[in-house]
Amino acid sequence: MGIQTSKDHSHSHSFRRNFFPYALYALLFIAIFRLYFFPTPTTTTTTTTVDHRFLTIKSPPPPASKGVVEEENGRNGCDYTNGKWVHDKMGPMYNSTACGTIKDGQNCASHGRPDMGYLYWRWKPNKCHLPRFDPNTFLQLTKDRHVAFVGDSIARNQLESLLCLLATVSVPNLIYTNGEDNKFRKWHFASHNVTVSVYWSPFLVKGFEKSEETPYNRLYLDSVNDVWAKDLGEIDMVVLSIGHWFLHPAVFYYGDSIVGCHYCNDKNHTEVGFYDVYGMAFNTTLKVLVDRQIDVIVTTFSPAHFQGDWDSLDACSKTKPFEENEKNLEGMDYEMRQQEIEQVISAKKSVENSKSFHLEALDVTKLALMRPDGHPGPYMYPFPFANGKRERVPNDCVHWCLPGPIDTWNEIMLDVMKRWYL
After folding, report:
1. CA atoms within 13 A on the CB side of 176
2. Is the torsion defined by CA of 9, 14, 20, 23 positive or negative?
3. Which residues partner with 45 through β-bridges?
4. What Å distances lie between residue 404 and 147, 273, 374, 399, CA to CA?
5. Is position 399 annotated as part of the catalytic site?
6. C-alpha–C-alpha distance, residues 407 and 348, integer Å
7. Mean pLDDT across the stretch 222-249?
8. pLDDT digits (tens, 9 = 90+) for 133-187
9. Is the N end or the C end of the chain the one with fewer CB atoms within 10 Å?
10. 3-class secondary structure per residue, 64-109
């Protein structure tokens, strides 16, 4: 190494003095250029063009560390999204033998389920109190109104829970039934002139369910299903609840054009998954309801709890809730809920100045995720082990026992409605 002379040092000092300002200016210019022309994306997207319409397919976001997507819950009233299940000595407001509207497959106690611990839990939000369901308050708030549940079998599950809760003070009279497995039904509570109905529509939008001839569903994402939309003139409030049917193979249409499919390897269509399609179904539906100014509750995705094959003995054999932080909201459950929340927030912004229209997400995904003990399991059928324990037995780890955790969905819904109407 040589020794630096004073001349070399002076030259070096002059170079640094002149170079650094230019370097800073260059870096600043690059940063501004990068931010302006290439803003940091929140999700990775690819876009498929179809007749000048675009279907955007998002990759799932990284799992939330605490299983929660922050949004605008809690600005008005109780933020019931975050909390824990706590022991409740009072138990349910009704029993399965006294309520005559429970679907047979969800009547767990009457089918011989031996453990009753799943009945003695209550959801306790972290920062507020969630009141027990008051059937008289619900009937008073919906006096002279028609409340319709629209969706799949989880929508029916929540409806039947509501009927049992209301039946503790007023008798529901079945005034209409139609369709296989009673998929379309209507009840009337004469005490308050309240009508409650259920419409089978597992996609919300126009769709054709798979069959032996066509082994995939066909969904038309630009129009709602007329099976329920034709009755909107007589409906005052709609509860939407869908999800699990979007997991099945399907081809998706927008107008007359095919925009893609899900799980259709034998078809010459683009595989697009179902997350964004799920969001599009809600977008189309909420636009119609917003335009008609019909109050809307969106019950978010209800996770399943299969811990193995659907017919294995331990498919959903847990007998108590998960502890707080024992189970995170992630993967498909996370993304399905995210799509619903985003669509609700967007729709609310479009009518934020309206005082005559109400819309809210009934955000139950996390609290449902924490209840692996609340499903019928093998007791979807009466006394499955009456002739001895079997190695394989069908299990229902999707729907909820009645009474059971899904009663909480209606407690939260009533709390939302009190903020709307009182």
Report:
1. 10
2. negative
3. 58
4. 22, 32, 6, 10
5. yes
6. 26
7. 97
8. 999 999 999 999 999 999 999 999 999 999 999 999 999 999 999 988 889 999 9
9. N
10. CCCCCCCCCCCCCCCCCCCEEEEECCCCCCCCCCCCCCCCHHHCCC
Compute the CA torsion angle 285, 291, 297, 302 (nearest 10 deg): 10
Beta-carbon-side half-sphere exposure of residue 409 (alpha carbons within 13 Å)? 35
Note the pTM of the prediction, 2 decimals: 0.83
- Among the listed residues 392, 405, 406, 373, the one whose alpha carbon sits nearest the alpha carbon of residue 305: 373
The closest of 397, 371, 405 to 312, measured between CA atoms, is 397
CA distance 369 to 83: 12
Q: Tell me the two tokens of residue 130.
A: 């969630």
Which residue's structure tokens are 């009753």? 116
Q: In this structure, how many other beta carbons lie within 10 angstroms of the beta carbon of residue 178?
A: 10
Nearest to 324 by CA among 125, 131, 129: 125
173 three-state secondary structure: strand
201 is catalytic: no
By the 8 A CB rule, do 143 and 418 touch?
no
How many CB atoms are located within 10 Å of the residue 252 CB?
A: 28
Strands 146-151 and 237-241: parallel
Structure tokens given for 111 = 């089918």
User: Residue 19 is encoded by which pair of tokens?
Assistant: 């170079």
Q: Which of 295, 396, 407, 415 is catalytic?
A: 396
Beta strands across the sheet bearing 217-224: 205-208, 217-224, 250-254, 257-262
In this structure, of 64-68, 285-289, 372-376, the range with the lowest mean pLDDT score is 64-68
Q: Among this protein's residues, is 153 annotated catalytic?
A: yes
Q: Enter the tokens of residue 263.
A: 């799980």
Locate 350 and state its tokens.
Answer: 């479009």
